[in-house]
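Entry:
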Amino acid sequence: MEKTEIHPKAYLVSKRNVKAGLRARSKILFILEEAKGSASEISKRSGLGYECIAYHLRSMRKERLVERSGRRPYLWALTKFGQQRLSP
């Protein structure tokens, strides 16, 4: 996974959108576009720390980009809103 582009949905209303956060959220969103996953699976695939992933998943959940299902460990997936792409 060598995507360095910023995902359009990585920008959050409730947060300062600094480059590091945008890159982390973009990695998470690109991974979740492929398949659902737990925070630890996303952490392994992205190369980011577990706490970083958990923090950004919680932030994106507040803005209804992602949702969790099941019992711990939760499976995370994009919501319908999170799946929508901005048209060019």
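Residues 36-80 form a domain with the Arc Repressor Mutant, subunit A fold (CATH 1.10.10.10).
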